[in-house]
Amino acid sequence: MTPNRGLALFRFWFALLGFLAVVFQLTHLLQNVPGATAGNYFSYFTIESNIIAFITLAVGGRYAWKGESPRWLELLRGAATIYMTITGIVYNLLLSNIDVNTPIPWINVVLHYTIPTIMVIDWLVDLPRTRIPVRTSLVWLAFPLLYLVYSLIRGPIAGWYPYPFLDPRISGYGTVAVMALAIAAAAFVLALITAFSTRLHIAPTSDRVTAGAATAPLQPEGSTVN
What is each CA distance from 209 to 138, 163, 200, 214, in whole angstroms? Predict the structure, then answer.
């Protein structure tokens, strides 16, 4: 695999941007918002998924620089892409007019719009070279499910929930269950789409030529082709 320095720099830049957004936002909240805690901050799915995303971009940039793409990295990229897509969709559909502790405009844009878009672009421009089976893609759903369990357990203990649709004090556990099932269904569809997208990968020309040469019928020695 040929080193792709342009892709590597692309990933490094947005990994740095995501990292700075998460760090600056935490610093701002702890210094300026009474009652803000690191525990609550890191309990937002947005923050957790962005951390996964910028780590994935940084690691992916390193391997792109070397011209390598190990299987585990392809699976990690798929997971990060799904989590950031969930972040972008849920924010735009359910949370755009709700305070989710992102008061700094540029940080809000980076966390909820820029990085989700970048992860999808990065996935599409560098699809895995081998297909990811649907069964394997379902493993990506473990993190959102664990996050839901964590939020519902921590909520009563901390007296705080990260999002209104996860807060049973507002409209009861029935509404929380419906919203959780809807988001889980959306995540399932995204996992399927991401897995099926790996079938779109087109082998480089050199690989196709090599494969074609390997499968071409051999001409008898000394024969000529008319």
Answer: 35, 53, 19, 9
Q: Rounded CA gap, 62 and 58, in Å?
A: 6
Radius of gyration of the chain (CA): 22
Which conformational region is residue 33 in: left (phi greater than 0), alpha (psi within -120 to 50 degrees), or beta? beta
Closest by Cα among 98, 22, 69 to 204: 69
DSSP secondary structure letters along 137-176: HGGGGHHHHHHHHHHHHHHHHHT--SSGGG-HHHHHHHHH
85 falls in which pLDDT band (50, 70, 90)?
very high
What integer pLDDT is reported at residue 217 of this predicted model?
A: 53
Two tokens, residue 192: 């399927």
pLDDT in tens, 39-69: 999 999 999 999 999 999 999 999 999 999 9
Estimate the crossing angle of helix 71-90 against helix 168-197, to 10 degrees. Answer: 140
Copy the structure tokens of residue 70: 């190990």
Quickly state the pLDDT bin for 98 (edges 50, 70, 90): confident
**What is the C-alpha separation between 69 and 71, in angstroms, rounded?**
7
Domain ranges in the chain? 5-203
**Residue 200 gets which letter from DSSP?**
G
